[in-house]
# Entry
Amino acid sequence: MALPLAGYRVLELAHLVAGPVCGMLLADLGADVVKVEAPAGGDLARTVYDPLLGGDSAVFHTVNRNKRSVALDLAHPEGRAAFARLAAGADVVVEAYRGGVAERLGIDHAALARVNPRLVYCSLSAFGPDGPWRDKPGLDMLVQALSGLMAVTGEPGGGPVLCGAPVLDTLGAFQAATGVLTALLHRERTGEGQRVDVSLLGGALLAHAARLSVFFVTGEEPGRQGSAHPYLVPFQAFAAQDGWIYVAAWVDRLWEPFCAALERPALAADPRFAARADRLRHREALVAEVAPVFRERTVRDWMARLEKHDVLCAPVNTYRDLADDPVVRASGLLVPQEHPRAGRLTTLATPIRFSRTPGGIREPAPALGEHTEAVLREAGLGPEEIQRLRAAGIVR
# Structure
Protein backbone atom coordinates (compact mmCIF):
# COMPACT_ATOMS: atom_id res chain seq x y z
CA MET A 1 0.00 0.00 0.00
CA ALA A 2 1.36 3.44 -0.95
CA LEU A 3 2.48 5.56 1.97
CA PRO A 4 0.90 9.02 2.45
CA LEU A 5 3.90 10.96 1.14
CA ALA A 6 5.05 8.47 -1.50
CA GLY A 7 6.12 10.31 -4.65
CA TYR A 8 7.27 13.47 -2.87
CA ARG A 9 10.99 14.26 -2.80
CA VAL A 10 12.51 16.25 0.06
CA LEU A 11 16.04 17.67 0.08
CA GLU A 12 17.31 17.97 3.66
CA LEU A 13 20.00 20.53 4.46
CA ALA A 14 20.25 20.04 8.21
CA HIS A 15 22.34 18.50 10.95
CA LEU A 16 22.14 17.43 14.60
CA VAL A 17 18.49 17.00 15.74
CA ALA A 18 15.76 19.52 14.80
CA GLY A 19 16.00 19.52 10.98
CA PRO A 20 16.79 15.80 10.74
CA VAL A 21 13.78 14.92 12.93
CA CYS A 22 11.58 16.90 10.55
CA GLY A 23 13.08 14.92 7.66
CA MET A 24 12.63 11.69 9.61
CA LEU A 25 8.91 12.35 10.11
CA LEU A 26 8.44 13.01 6.39
CA ALA A 27 10.54 9.97 5.45
CA ASP A 28 8.65 7.68 7.84
CA LEU A 29 5.45 8.67 6.04
CA GLY A 30 6.87 7.77 2.63
CA ALA A 31 8.68 10.83 1.29
CA ASP A 32 11.97 10.27 -0.55
CA VAL A 33 14.19 12.32 1.77
CA VAL A 34 17.63 13.01 0.33
CA LYS A 35 20.04 14.18 2.99
CA VAL A 36 22.62 16.49 1.42
CA GLU A 37 25.83 16.46 3.47
CA ALA A 38 29.33 17.90 3.21
CA PRO A 39 31.77 15.32 1.80
CA ALA A 40 34.22 15.90 4.67
CA GLY A 41 32.45 14.40 7.66
CA GLY A 42 28.81 15.03 6.83
CA ASP A 43 26.20 15.72 9.50
CA LEU A 44 27.87 16.56 12.83
CA ALA A 45 25.45 14.15 14.52
CA ARG A 46 27.33 11.26 12.91
CA THR A 47 30.17 11.61 15.42
CA VAL A 48 29.45 14.39 17.96
CA TYR A 49 27.29 12.15 20.16
CA ASP A 50 28.38 8.96 21.91
CA PRO A 51 28.12 6.01 21.62
CA LEU A 52 29.15 5.26 18.05
CA LEU A 53 27.63 2.20 16.39
CA GLY A 54 29.18 1.13 13.10
CA GLY A 55 30.96 4.47 12.80
CA ASP A 56 27.93 6.71 13.40
CA SER A 57 26.19 7.76 16.60
CA ALA A 58 23.04 6.14 17.97
CA VAL A 59 21.37 9.56 17.66
CA PHE A 60 22.22 9.74 13.95
CA HIS A 61 20.88 6.25 13.33
CA THR A 62 17.58 7.16 14.98
CA VAL A 63 16.79 10.48 13.31
CA ASN A 64 18.10 9.67 9.82
CA ARG A 65 16.43 6.36 9.01
CA ASN A 66 14.52 6.00 5.74
CA LYS A 67 16.74 8.63 4.06
CA ARG A 68 19.30 8.63 1.27
CA SER A 69 22.62 10.45 1.62
CA VAL A 70 24.29 12.58 -1.03
CA ALA A 71 27.74 13.96 -0.19
CA LEU A 72 27.99 17.24 -2.11
CA ASP A 73 30.26 20.26 -1.55
CA LEU A 74 27.93 23.27 -1.68
CA ALA A 75 30.84 25.66 -1.13
CA HIS A 76 31.98 24.86 -4.70
CA PRO A 77 30.13 26.43 -7.68
CA GLU A 78 29.80 23.06 -9.41
CA GLY A 79 28.39 21.56 -6.21
CA ARG A 80 25.79 24.32 -6.03
CA ALA A 81 24.95 23.81 -9.69
CA ALA A 82 24.40 20.10 -9.04
CA PHE A 83 22.21 20.94 -6.05
CA ALA A 84 20.12 23.30 -8.20
CA ARG A 85 19.48 20.39 -10.57
CA LEU A 86 18.34 18.30 -7.61
CA ALA A 87 16.06 21.13 -6.47
CA ALA A 88 14.55 21.44 -9.95
CA GLY A 89 13.00 18.01 -9.50
CA ALA A 90 12.23 18.21 -5.78
CA ASP A 91 9.03 19.08 -3.97
CA VAL A 92 10.50 20.31 -0.71
CA VAL A 93 13.73 21.70 0.72
CA VAL A 94 14.16 21.62 4.49
CA GLU A 95 16.99 23.98 5.44
CA ALA A 96 18.31 24.44 8.98
CA TYR A 97 21.52 26.37 8.38
CA ARG A 98 22.69 29.33 10.40
CA GLY A 99 20.92 32.51 9.27
CA GLY A 100 22.38 33.95 6.07
CA VAL A 101 24.27 30.82 5.01
CA ALA A 102 21.73 29.68 2.39
CA GLU A 103 21.66 33.19 0.90
CA ARG A 104 25.47 33.38 0.71
CA LEU A 105 25.57 29.99 -1.00
CA GLY A 106 22.83 31.01 -3.43
CA ILE A 107 20.55 28.11 -2.44
CA ASP A 108 17.95 30.18 -0.57
CA HIS A 109 14.27 30.20 -1.45
CA ALA A 110 14.50 33.15 -3.84
CA ALA A 111 17.25 31.46 -5.87
CA LEU A 112 15.68 28.01 -5.98
CA ALA A 113 12.18 29.33 -6.71
CA ARG A 114 13.53 30.59 -10.04
CA VAL A 115 14.55 27.02 -10.83
CA ASN A 116 11.39 25.42 -9.42
CA PRO A 117 8.41 27.75 -8.74
CA ARG A 118 6.45 24.84 -7.20
CA LEU A 119 9.11 24.26 -4.53
CA VAL A 120 8.13 24.34 -0.87
CA TYR A 121 11.15 25.73 0.99
CA CYS A 122 11.10 25.35 4.76
CA SER A 123 13.65 27.23 6.87
CA LEU A 124 14.00 26.00 10.45
CA SER A 125 16.07 28.28 12.68
CA ALA A 126 16.65 28.86 16.37
CA PHE A 127 15.55 32.49 16.62
CA GLY A 128 13.57 33.22 13.44
CA PRO A 129 14.31 35.05 10.17
CA ASP A 130 14.11 38.56 11.65
CA GLY A 131 15.54 40.43 14.61
CA PRO A 132 19.03 40.90 16.05
CA TRP A 133 19.70 37.18 16.43
CA ARG A 134 18.61 36.07 12.93
CA ASP A 135 22.22 35.21 11.99
CA LYS A 136 23.21 33.80 15.39
CA PRO A 137 23.80 30.04 15.58
CA GLY A 138 21.41 28.47 18.05
CA LEU A 139 20.88 25.26 19.96
CA ASP A 140 17.94 23.89 21.94
CA MET A 141 19.38 24.94 25.31
CA LEU A 142 20.03 28.53 24.21
CA VAL A 143 16.39 28.83 23.22
CA GLN A 144 15.33 27.27 26.52
CA ALA A 145 17.24 30.08 28.22
CA LEU A 146 16.01 32.92 26.00
CA SER A 147 12.37 31.84 25.94
CA GLY A 148 11.93 31.69 29.72
CA LEU A 149 11.67 27.91 29.84
CA MET A 150 14.72 27.59 32.12
CA ALA A 151 13.34 30.27 34.42
CA VAL A 152 10.34 28.09 35.26
CA THR A 153 12.24 24.80 35.43
CA GLY A 154 13.94 23.61 38.60
CA GLU A 155 13.36 23.48 42.32
CA PRO A 156 12.02 26.44 44.33
CA GLY A 157 14.89 28.62 45.44
CA GLY A 158 17.29 26.89 43.08
CA GLY A 159 18.91 28.00 39.86
CA PRO A 160 17.52 27.58 36.34
CA VAL A 161 17.54 24.01 35.02
CA LEU A 162 17.83 22.66 31.48
CA CYS A 163 15.01 20.33 30.48
CA GLY A 164 16.31 16.76 30.46
CA ALA A 165 15.57 16.20 26.75
CA PRO A 166 15.90 18.51 23.69
CA VAL A 167 12.17 19.15 23.59
CA LEU A 168 12.45 22.38 21.61
CA ASP A 169 14.38 20.65 18.82
CA THR A 170 11.58 18.11 18.60
CA LEU A 171 8.83 20.72 18.78
CA GLY A 172 10.60 22.70 16.08
CA ALA A 173 10.75 19.58 13.92
CA PHE A 174 7.00 19.03 14.26
CA GLN A 175 6.34 22.70 13.43
CA ALA A 176 8.49 22.37 10.31
CA ALA A 177 6.79 19.15 9.21
CA THR A 178 3.37 20.72 9.77
CA GLY A 179 4.40 23.77 7.75
CA VAL A 180 5.71 21.60 4.91
CA LEU A 181 2.54 19.52 4.75
CA THR A 182 0.30 22.60 4.87
CA ALA A 183 2.29 24.26 2.08
CA LEU A 184 2.08 21.09 0.00
CA LEU A 185 -1.68 21.04 0.47
CA HIS A 186 -1.82 24.64 -0.73
CA ARG A 187 0.36 23.73 -3.71
CA GLU A 188 -1.92 20.83 -4.62
CA ARG A 189 -4.82 23.29 -4.77
CA THR A 190 -3.08 26.21 -6.48
CA GLY A 191 0.18 24.98 -8.02
CA GLU A 192 2.10 27.58 -5.99
CA GLY A 193 5.23 26.86 -3.99
CA GLN A 194 6.24 29.07 -1.11
CA ARG A 195 8.66 29.64 1.76
CA VAL A 196 7.82 28.35 5.24
CA ASP A 197 9.62 29.80 8.28
CA VAL A 198 9.56 28.20 11.72
CA SER A 199 11.80 28.67 14.73
CA LEU A 200 12.60 26.91 17.97
CA LEU A 201 11.77 30.18 19.73
CA GLY A 202 8.27 30.16 18.25
CA GLY A 203 7.71 26.62 19.47
CA ALA A 204 9.05 27.47 22.92
CA LEU A 205 6.72 30.44 23.33
CA LEU A 206 3.79 28.33 22.15
CA ALA A 207 4.73 25.70 24.75
CA HIS A 208 4.47 28.47 27.36
CA ALA A 209 0.92 29.42 26.32
CA ALA A 210 -0.77 28.00 29.42
CA ARG A 211 1.63 29.93 31.70
CA LEU A 212 2.14 33.12 29.68
CA SER A 213 -1.60 33.65 29.31
CA VAL A 214 -1.85 33.83 33.11
CA PHE A 215 1.23 36.04 33.44
CA PHE A 216 -0.07 38.55 30.89
CA VAL A 217 -3.16 39.01 33.07
CA THR A 218 -1.61 38.95 36.55
CA GLY A 219 1.97 40.08 35.93
CA GLU A 220 3.09 37.46 38.46
CA GLU A 221 6.01 35.19 37.58
CA PRO A 222 5.17 31.50 38.15
CA GLY A 223 8.75 30.86 39.28
CA ARG A 224 10.32 27.44 39.68
CA GLN A 225 8.09 24.81 41.27
CA GLY A 226 10.10 21.62 40.79
CA SER A 227 7.65 18.93 39.74
CA ALA A 228 4.69 20.94 41.08
CA HIS A 229 2.11 22.97 39.18
CA PRO A 230 2.18 26.72 39.85
CA TYR A 231 -1.60 27.05 40.12
CA LEU A 232 -2.91 23.62 41.23
CA VAL A 233 -2.30 21.56 44.40
CA PRO A 234 -1.70 18.63 44.82
CA PHE A 235 -0.21 18.36 41.36
CA GLN A 236 3.35 17.02 41.68
CA ALA A 237 5.65 14.05 42.20
CA PHE A 238 5.84 12.42 45.64
CA ALA A 239 8.53 10.05 46.89
CA ALA A 240 7.22 6.55 47.63
CA GLN A 241 9.07 3.63 49.26
CA ASP A 242 10.76 2.55 46.04
CA GLY A 243 10.51 5.45 43.63
CA TRP A 244 8.39 8.44 42.70
CA ILE A 245 4.76 8.81 41.69
CA TYR A 246 3.13 11.80 40.02
CA VAL A 247 -0.32 12.73 41.30
CA ALA A 248 -2.79 15.26 39.88
CA ALA A 249 -5.82 15.89 42.06
CA TRP A 250 -6.38 18.94 39.93
CA VAL A 251 -10.09 19.70 40.38
CA ASP A 252 -12.20 20.00 43.52
CA ARG A 253 -14.18 16.84 42.85
CA LEU A 254 -10.96 14.79 43.08
CA TRP A 255 -9.89 16.16 46.46
CA GLU A 256 -12.11 13.90 48.56
CA PRO A 257 -11.25 10.74 46.52
CA PHE A 258 -7.57 11.65 46.84
CA CYS A 259 -7.91 11.84 50.64
CA ALA A 260 -9.82 8.54 50.65
CA ALA A 261 -7.03 6.83 48.67
CA LEU A 262 -4.54 8.10 51.26
CA GLU A 263 -6.87 6.95 54.08
CA ARG A 264 -6.76 10.49 55.50
CA PRO A 265 -10.44 11.56 55.62
CA ALA A 266 -9.59 14.36 58.07
CA LEU A 267 -7.76 16.18 55.29
CA ALA A 268 -10.93 16.29 53.20
CA ALA A 269 -12.71 18.06 56.07
CA ASP A 270 -9.87 20.50 56.79
CA PRO A 271 -11.06 24.04 55.88
CA ARG A 272 -7.53 24.99 54.80
CA PHE A 273 -7.87 22.60 51.88
CA ALA A 274 -11.59 22.84 51.08
CA ALA A 275 -11.29 24.33 47.58
CA ARG A 276 -8.64 24.79 44.91
CA ALA A 277 -7.84 28.36 45.98
CA ASP A 278 -7.52 27.24 49.62
CA ARG A 279 -5.15 24.42 48.72
CA LEU A 280 -3.02 26.75 46.62
CA ARG A 281 -2.85 29.28 49.47
CA HIS A 282 -1.80 26.56 51.92
CA ARG A 283 0.44 24.62 49.53
CA GLU A 284 3.31 24.12 52.00
CA ALA A 285 1.03 22.87 54.77
CA LEU A 286 -0.75 20.45 52.44
CA VAL A 287 2.47 18.99 51.04
CA ALA A 288 3.83 18.63 54.58
CA GLU A 289 0.74 16.56 55.46
CA VAL A 290 0.76 14.40 52.35
CA ALA A 291 4.44 13.75 51.56
CA PRO A 292 5.12 11.47 54.57
CA VAL A 293 2.05 9.37 53.73
CA PHE A 294 3.39 8.53 50.27
CA ARG A 295 6.62 7.19 51.76
CA GLU A 296 4.64 4.44 53.50
CA ARG A 297 3.90 2.39 50.35
CA THR A 298 5.43 1.40 47.02
CA VAL A 299 4.69 3.08 43.72
CA ARG A 300 2.70 0.05 42.59
CA ASP A 301 0.57 0.14 45.76
CA TRP A 302 -0.16 3.82 45.33
CA MET A 303 -1.02 3.40 41.65
CA ALA A 304 -3.62 0.76 42.54
CA ARG A 305 -5.12 2.84 45.37
CA LEU A 306 -5.26 6.11 43.44
CA GLU A 307 -6.61 4.55 40.25
CA LYS A 308 -9.35 2.84 42.29
CA HIS A 309 -10.53 6.33 43.28
CA ASP A 310 -10.11 7.79 39.77
CA VAL A 311 -7.26 10.10 40.80
CA LEU A 312 -4.86 10.88 37.95
CA CYS A 313 -1.43 9.38 38.60
CA ALA A 314 1.60 7.88 36.89
CA PRO A 315 4.91 6.35 37.92
CA VAL A 316 7.94 8.60 37.37
CA ASN A 317 9.81 6.19 35.10
CA THR A 318 13.54 6.13 34.52
CA TYR A 319 14.76 5.30 31.02
CA ARG A 320 15.45 1.77 32.26
CA ASP A 321 11.81 1.46 33.33
CA LEU A 322 10.39 2.29 29.92
CA ALA A 323 10.93 -1.07 28.22
CA ASP A 324 9.00 -2.89 30.96
CA ASP A 325 6.22 -0.36 31.46
CA PRO A 326 2.95 -1.91 30.21
CA VAL A 327 1.68 1.40 28.85
CA VAL A 328 4.88 2.07 26.89
CA ARG A 329 4.98 -1.55 25.66
CA ALA A 330 1.38 -1.37 24.47
CA SER A 331 2.10 1.87 22.58
CA GLY A 332 4.46 0.02 20.24
CA LEU A 333 6.71 3.08 20.14
CA LEU A 334 9.92 1.29 21.17
CA VAL A 335 10.97 -1.06 18.39
CA PRO A 336 14.05 -3.11 17.44
CA GLN A 337 15.92 -2.38 14.23
CA GLU A 338 18.63 -4.31 12.41
CA HIS A 339 21.33 -2.09 10.90
CA PRO A 340 23.96 -3.41 8.48
CA ARG A 341 26.78 -1.47 10.19
CA ALA A 342 25.48 -0.78 13.70
CA GLY A 343 23.91 -4.17 14.37
CA ARG A 344 20.72 -4.51 16.39
CA LEU A 345 19.47 -1.40 18.17
CA THR A 346 16.31 -0.22 19.90
CA THR A 347 14.78 2.84 18.32
CA LEU A 348 11.55 4.82 18.21
CA ALA A 349 8.65 4.03 15.91
CA THR A 350 7.01 6.85 13.99
CA PRO A 351 4.62 8.57 16.43
CA ILE A 352 1.95 9.34 13.80
CA ARG A 353 -0.40 6.52 12.85
CA PHE A 354 -2.83 6.15 9.96
CA SER A 355 -5.54 3.54 9.64
CA ARG A 356 -5.02 3.04 5.90
CA THR A 357 -1.48 4.17 5.06
CA PRO A 358 0.78 3.52 8.06
CA GLY A 359 4.35 4.78 7.98
CA GLY A 360 7.30 3.02 9.53
CA ILE A 361 10.99 2.19 9.42
CA ARG A 362 11.90 0.79 6.02
CA GLU A 363 15.61 1.58 5.64
CA PRO A 364 18.49 2.23 8.06
CA ALA A 365 20.25 5.58 8.31
CA PRO A 366 22.57 5.91 5.30
CA ALA A 367 26.34 5.94 5.19
CA LEU A 368 27.80 9.29 4.18
CA GLY A 369 27.36 9.66 0.42
CA GLU A 370 25.86 6.18 0.07
CA HIS A 371 23.34 7.34 -2.55
CA THR A 372 25.28 10.16 -4.21
CA GLU A 373 25.64 8.57 -7.64
CA ALA A 374 22.09 7.19 -7.78
CA VAL A 375 20.48 10.52 -6.82
CA LEU A 376 22.64 12.57 -9.18
CA ARG A 377 21.79 10.19 -12.03
CA GLU A 378 18.10 10.69 -11.22
CA ALA A 379 18.68 14.45 -11.55
CA GLY A 380 20.07 13.92 -15.05
CA LEU A 381 23.80 14.02 -14.43
CA GLY A 382 25.71 11.59 -16.62
CA PRO A 383 28.47 9.17 -15.54
CA GLU A 384 31.28 11.36 -16.88
CA GLU A 385 29.90 14.43 -15.14
CA ILE A 386 29.61 12.55 -11.84
CA GLN A 387 33.12 11.15 -12.22
CA ARG A 388 34.51 14.64 -12.80
CA LEU A 389 32.79 15.90 -9.64
CA ARG A 390 34.13 12.91 -7.71
CA ALA A 391 37.66 13.45 -8.96
CA ALA A 392 37.48 17.10 -7.90
CA GLY A 393 36.28 16.12 -4.41
CA ILE A 394 32.97 17.93 -4.92
CA VAL A 395 30.98 14.72 -4.35
CA ARG A 396 31.75 11.63 -2.35
Notes: The domain at 9-206+330-391 is CATH 3.40.50.10540 (Rossmann fold).
